[in-house]
Write a structure and sequence with these properties.
The chain is α+β, with helices and mostly antiparallel strands. It has 10 helices and 8 strands.
Length: about 325
């Protein structure tokens, strides 16, 4: 079952758009800021892949030569070996987070983080002289633009009223989010601490169970030895699988609520937007696997399969424990 999920995820990722497709379906984004050829582009932004670049509202913002494309899985020809889907998602996520894109036709795009974007836009719409603006922009760290490039941008840039209103709205929203984060920081940290401690305890318990429930070496047929101990071992392993699966579900939902989770499984990504759907999906898969193992517990294949499934979930819980420990630091 686990191998089936992994294969499905890989196959779904491999079917994403490639350079053989002239244009992909646009992803509409309502946040972020784009400056093209010195002019501010108002949202919404339609982000798409149009060979050979990522385009926003039909304008090339990420040329092909700026993309460091790796090999695409399951590519059948040289034309399909580039995999631009992740670049499209990167640009869309950058805008969703309130980032800024500064671009010119035929030149590499500059992506500024939300914090730097606020600083840059405040300088651009300010009342200072162009010389002062250029000096202030050059002083902004982490933005790969020269003084001449900043000077050309300042000379051509015109700040519409809409941009000032969007900046004010964005700052107000960020201040509100910061207040909410302060209000929820203590409870979230307490929950994270409990989940981390629970992960340690569950990992130790699962490892102990795996060491005492060694599976048979052969997979064929029904176990002809005394069935009691082996049947009880499968039951113990099923209990481990169910408990660890519930803990994995809790960690997933908690990390998603905090915004620190980037789900790679294409089957689970649409479900994360609706909590009850994720819970029903996860519990249904776990219950189905548990029932199969319990019904077939006299067979060697079920005994070996339940043991290895316990190993997989133990590794997963150790990974969650490490992940949560990093956020606690």
């Amino acid at each position: 079952m686990a191998l089936l999920c992994v294969f499905t995820a890989c196959a779904a990722g491999a079917q994403r758009g490639g350079p053989g497709v002239r244009a992909s379906r646009a992803v509409e984004v309502g946040d972020g800021f784009v400056i093209f050829e010195g002019a501010y582009l108002p949202p919404p932004y339609a982000v798409a892949w149009a060979r050979p670049a990522v385009v926003v509202n039909g304008l090339e913002v990420l040329p092909a030569r700026q993309m460091q494309l790796g090999p695409r899985p399951f590519a059948r020809s040289d034309e399909e070996r580039a995999w631009p889907g992740r670049h499209l998602e990167h640009v869309a996520n950058h805008l969703r987070g309130g980032g800024l894109i500064i671009c010119r036709a035929g030149e590499p795009a500059v992506l500024a983080s939300p914090g730097r974007a606020m600083t840059i836009l405040d300088i651009l719409i300010g009342d200072d002289s162009n010389e002062v603006k250029v000096q202030d922009l050059v002083a902004v760290k982490g933005v790969s633009m020269t003084a001449d490039q900043w000077a050309r941008l300042v000379e051509r840039f015109e700040a519409p009223v809409e941009l000032s209103q969007r900046l004010d709205h964005w700052k107000a929203r960020q201040a509100e989010l910061a207040f909410v984060e302060v209000e929820t920081a203590a409870p979230s940290r307490a929950i994270l601490s409990m989940m981390t401690l629970a992960g340690f305890a569950l990992a130790v318990w699962a490892l102990g169970t795996l060491l005492t429930c060694r599976p048979p070496l052969r997979l064929d047929g029904v176990d002809t030895r005394t069935p009691g101990p082996w049947n009880r071992q499968v039951v113990r392993l099923v209990v481990v699988i169910v408990v660890l699966s519930v803990h994995d579900l809790a960690c997933t939902l908690f990390a998603h609520d905090l915004g620190s989770l980037w789900e790679l499984n294409p089957l689970a990504t649409p479900l994360l937007a609706h909590g009850p759907s994720v819970v029903a999906f996860k519990l249904s898969l776990t219950a189905g696997a548990a029932i199969v193992f319990l019904v077939a517990r006299a067979h060697r294949l079920a005994q070996v399969g339940s043991w290895w499934m316990g190993v997989v979930y133990t590794i997963l819980i150790l990974r969650w424990t490490t992940y949560n420990s990093v956020f606690m630091a």
